[in-house]
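Weekly structure sync, notes
Attendees: PL, DS, HV (note-taker this week)

Item 1: 3'(2'),5-bisphosphonucleoside 3'(2')-phosphohydrolase
DS walked through the input record. Source organism listed as Kineosporia corallincola. Sequence as pasted into the shared doc:
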Amino acid sequence: MTIEPGGDDARLARTLAHAAGLALLEVRTGSAEGKELKDAGDARAQEVLAKLLAEYRPDDAVLSEEAADSAARLSAERVWIIDPLDGTREFSERPRSDWAVHVALWQRGREYGGRLTDGAIALPARDITYGTDDPPVLPPRPDGPIRLAVSRSRPPAFVTQVAEELGAELVPMGSAGVKCSSVWTNEADAYLHAGGQFEWDSAAPVAVAQSVGLHTSRIDGSPLIYNRVSPKLPDLLVCRTEFAEKILATVARHIPEVITR
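Item 1 (cont.): predicted structure, written out as tokens:
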């Protein structure tokens, strides 16, 4: 693995996600099962990402699911938002491949205005990494109903209601990163979520989705804002742009009365 100090952030994001993915595949070859395997995966991927970020971007702040948060990131110019292992359940259920590594960079300043600028998602068990350095090309979609990516184990009830009104087909799959990536790989047309998430769940997928040209927003249509005091970011819509208006209008008729902001 070659990393150039001070080099391109988007390429670094891809390299880091790939490196953590390789470490996770190695962990998965061991004898651990269940919670032990989940914990081992979380710890190993966090170790890899923390070490590389400390080496190659020592002055940047980091927000990670697997590390203590620090208020210092709120005044930092650059913040890496990472999920070392997105989809721990899926990771622990061999041979499932619907788990991921998320690496994203948020930047402040006049040029960036406080937004995601770079990101990558590794799907190690599928031997592929998507990144903003080389955005995927969105293929033409097939004819048929709107396809909504949803959780295999706990799809929000309101998503089912929205799907019924849209006449949409539900496509069950694993982690948030995999569900987002399903939109640009043409397995689904949209990922709609309101069951509670954090910034690390969506930052890297949203960065890549934006580079593809997909619609990204909260489920009320408002912008997704990162590096906030609370890292909670409970809902998300990633979809092909031609369906955004229709989905948002339908969601508005079913949206939960209280959305935590």
